[in-house]
Automatic annotation (TrEMBL):
Pfam families: AAA_31. This is Histidine kinase. The lineage of its organism: Bacteria, Bacillati, Bacillota, Bacilli, Bacillales. One of its GO terms (molecular function) is kinase activity. GO terms for biological process: negative regulation of cell division.
């Protein structure tokens, strides 16, 4: 079928402003929970340097993103699909490259091609995204229908999450974001009720603290929604899956407008530079903190 009239699945990108807050745990368990609905679900390890989605599912991944990269830009849909690894839950997984140095080979164009192909074939495509505003991460965020932004009750995480939300506002993608407060029942001087005020945000999705279940699951490679379904943690995940599923919208490929977040960040910087010249007083650059500069 011609692109432009074809239904596409929903793309959920799991992101965070800080590492180690529970993105992989969430991606793997949410994707597996969706599989219980007998729909087609795929999961992409979008942390191309140190991704551990395969490990978390105990998948001996025969194929990885590197195989797709090796085929070059002319790679076709059957080849992309042939590099997915099959998990017993029904989940199809695109593993990250097995060496960190291959991450540099991944381009926004490859990401777009791979995600569009997966969206043609699956009801849900989830991405476990790396931290930060790397060009590739911006591509995934740009294409996403929904961004699950994971945070916790630590001040440094909340500070960075707030900055990330402000950047999303600038990039006009704030409306796609759902906040997830992971480990919301953990001991902390910051209380779950404080989070809305600190982040100047709406009410997040709350996930309870259960380190034993979460960590054991990641270590043995069995999602807790499969073998620990009676725990409060797994129940919260099923509830979250239900909530997201009920809000699912059928999208067509031509509904997706090209916005180019990376270019937006650059444009923002150009505008600010002009303003700086006029006002003399220097303003904070959006790009500087992310370490990318436009070549002139
Ligand atoms: N709800 C939870 N309760 C308690 N511990 C949790 C919970 N969710 C995740 N964890 C723990 O948090 C740690 C980090 O989880 P995970 O690896 O998923 O984070 P991450 O954001 O993917 O990290 P990275 O940025 O390194 O990829 C793990 O030890 C995991 O067991
Ligand atoms: Mg991770």
């Amino acid at each position: 079928m011609e692109e432009g009239v074809q239904k596409r699945g929903e793309l959920i990108v799991v992101a965070s402003a800080k590492g180690g807050v529970g993105k992989t745990c969430l991606s793997v368990n949410l994707a597996t929970a969706f599989c219980k609905k007998n729909i087609r679900v795929s999961l992409v390890d979008g942390d191309f340097q140190f991704g551990d989605v395969s490990l978390s599912l105990d998948l001996k991944s025969s194929f990885t993103m590197k195989d797709i990269l090796d085929e070059g830009e002319s790679i076709d849909k059957p080849s992309i699909l042939s590099y997915l690894n099959h998990h017993e839950s029904g989940l199809k997984v695109l593993a990250g490259p097995d060496r960190p140095e291959y991450a540099d080979l991944v381009t926004p164009e490859t990401i777009e091609n791979v995600l569009n192909t997966l969206l043609e074939e699956h009801h849900y495509v989830l991405v476990d995204c790396g931290v930060g505003f790397h060009e590739n991460n911006l591509k995934m965020l740009d294409m996403a229908d929904r961004v699950l932004l994971v945070t916790n009750l630590e001040m440094s995480t909340l500070k960075n999450t707030r900055l990330m939300l402000e950047t999303f506002e600038t990039l006009d993608i704030r409306h796609k974001v759902e906040l997830v407060l992971n480990r919301s029942t953990m001991e902390s001087v910051i209380k779950p009720n404080d989070v809305v005020g600190i982040l100047n945000s709406e009410e997040p999705i709350y996930l309870p603290n259960d380190f034993q279940t979460a960590s054991q699951s990641l270590n043995i490679g069995i999602p807790f929604v499969m073998n620990q379904a009676k725990t409060d943690l797994a129940k919260a995940y099923y509830k979250m899956a239900e909530r997201l599923y009920s809000k699912r919208e059928i999208t067509m490929f031509n509904d997706k407008k090209k916005s180019g977040l990376f270019e937006k960040l650059l444009t923002k910087k150009d505008v600010e530079n002009e303003e700086e010249k006029v006002e003399a007083a220097p303003k904070k650059s959006l790009l500087k903190p992310f370490g990318r500069r436009r070549s002139t």
